[in-house]
Amino acid sequence: MVVSDAIGSEARFDAVLVGAGIMSSTLALLLHELEPEMRILIIERLGAPALESSAAINNSGTGHAANCEFNYTPLKPDGSLEISQALAINSAFERSLELWASLTELGKISPASFLHSLPHMSFVSSETNIALLRQRYMNLSVRNAFQDMEWSEDEEEIKEWMPLIMNARDSGQKVAATRVARGTDIDFGALTIAYLNELQLSGAVELRLSTEVISISRSNDKSWRLSLAGTKGEYFVETPFVFLGAGGGALSLLQKSGIPESKSYGGFPVSGQWLVCNDPSLTKMHNAKVYGKSAVGAPPMSVPHLDTRWIKGKRSLLFGPFAGFNTKFLKNGSRFDFFRTIKLSNAFPMIQAGFKNFDLINYLLGQLQLDHSARMNALKEFFPQANSDDWTLSIAGQRVQIIKMTKDGGMLKLGTEVVASSDGSLAALLGASPGASTAVSIMLEVLQSCWLEKMSTDIWQKRLKKLLPSFGKDLISDESLLDQLRHRSDSLLGLR
Ligand SMILES: Cc1cc2nc3c(=O)[nH]c(=O)nc-3n(C[C@H](O)[C@H](O)[C@H](O)COP(=O)(O)OP(=O)(O)OC[C@H]3O[C@@H](n4cnc5c(N)ncnc54)[C@H](O)[C@@H]3O)c2cc1C
User: Fold this and answer.
1) N or C terminus: fewer CB in 10 A for the chain?
2) 5, 25, 52, 430: which to mutate for ligand 1, most atoms within 8 A of CB?
3) 3-state SS assignment for residue 121
């Protein structure tokens, strides 16, 4: 990877993207494909790309498609299931697969370096949760997007699906599971690096490492001036377009930009931890992501799951995440991060959001008190024969959940949100989940918000359709198009 650290002179770029994670790299890739002459600068404060949330060990690596995650099918007050979120995330992930298939076809990335086919399963054992899982299965499996979902209450069959989880379990205990064979495990860090390597070959995209954006201001009506601190001092760059893909660091940069839209937001950090096992005799016995049902009060991203992972090509097992709380907004951040983002404009909404989310706060306090043996007990509910010596604790990435000022006061929002200035010259991505799996759809949203004029030109439309054959069409309502695209993606990416 070519790395530069030019200092001393002011420089001008067509676009400056802050942060070298999956989001900025996806946007850089799309912009470069749409306008190959565009001069793009990516700035990263750490010494290498993808060391924060996008690093494989810092996230779960689930290609989120709602195949197994209960949180995308919440219960409505009338007892029926809401499946619109499940359909939306499923089609957003399909779009990511579509882009990766096109880039593979063009010889620009190699799927084996970041993508593994891995069944996605849900597993439950109480009467109430079995009824809920059955309801989920009945509602989803009638849709094309989930037509391959299988249901089982048969102990022997479930044992074949997930031997590690079923071995030594009390026979007679009622259990149920669903399986979607077409699931994935993704190393988003490896994907980020694959994009950046390809982009740097072009010569039009520059990656500047060990360089932090410390402030951002308007230099005139048409440009932004970013103040950078690199290994050799401070200097500026100017650009008409800025994307703040700084993960947990995006909120404070957005506030520094001073755009009025920034005033409506605050952030609440939730940290995570995994139990990791690298013993080959165990890793070979589990070939799935198995999601359970979260505890009462647990935030949706804390649904416990036992996953096969491929991290830097090595197979391991991860169980978690266990949630926690510290005041950093980045894993490599500062304990002051949270306090620095509290402003007069967002302090009251943040207090309101705290009062409305006592369940979450209680849950986090409970998680903070867990020791290794308590974590092992949680694992044993999944894998009864788990041995404490085989599992070590690993710290995951920080998630900064959005607190947004709404007409009903401060609200905690668990998704991601693109915040753009009214003139489209700056956009920031706030929030954490579902995140990386939907990076392509999220970056299309950035393009729609900030490059509207260009997006309607024939040349950009043509180039987008070449990369994303379904661009402009709705994969939720057009089920035959979905089938067609799945076939294309599966064969190009070797998914089945
Ligand atoms: C515990 C956990 C589990 C997750 N599980 C999944 C999952 O299973 N599937 C999924 O799809 N998503 C998952 N996610 C979400 C996913 O990891 C994120 O959505 C995604 O990685 C965010 O990418 P990013 O590029 O926005 O941020 P990051 O990868 O965090 O990158 C931001 C970069 O910006 C840099 N930066 C910050 N501030 C500055 C600055 N001032 N100047 C220069 N550089 C700066 C940082 O150093 C960092 O490299 C999970 C996240 C966590 C934390």
Assistant:
1) N
2) 52
3) strand
Q: Which atom of ligand 1 is nearest to the CA of 211?
A: 43
**In a 3-state reduction of DSSP, which class is residue 256?**
helix
Cβ-in-10-Å burial (0-12, 13-18, 19+) of 138 comes to: exposed
CA atoms of 186 and 184, how far apart (whole Å): 6
Look at residue 104 and give its three-state secondary structure: helix
Instruction: Report the atom number in ligand 1 closest to the C-alpha of 320.
Output: 1
Task: Give the count of beta carbons closer than 10 Å to the beta carbon of residue 20.
Answer: 29
Measured CA to CA, the distance from residue 359 to residue 255 in angstroms comes to: 29
Distance, CA of 30 to chain centre: 18
Which CATH number applies to 11-480?
3.50.50.60
| C-alpha closest to that of 128 among 290, 293, 291, 289 | 293
Q: Give the integer Cα–Cα distance in Å for 353 and 403.
A: 7
Q: Which pair of tokens denotes residue 476?
A: 């939720």
Q: Are 240 and 35 in contact (CB under 8 A)?
A: no
What does the radius of gyration of the chain's CA atoms come to, in whole angstroms? Answer: 22
pLDDT along the chain (496 residues), means of 10: 44 96 98 96 98 96 96 93 96 97 97 96 94 97 96 96 89 92 97 97 93 94 92 92 97 96 92 94 96 74 88 92 89 94 88 82 80 92 93 94 88 90 96 90 97 97 96 93 96 92
Pairing of strands 11-12, 233-239: parallel
The residue extents of the domains of the chain are: 11-480
Q: How far apart are CA 21 and CA 248, in angstroms?
A: 11
Report the separation in Å between the CA atom of 247 and the middle of ligand 1, taken as the mean of its atom positions.
Answer: 5
Question: Where does 35-166 have alpha helices with state H?
Answer: 84-105, 127-140, 155-161, 163-166
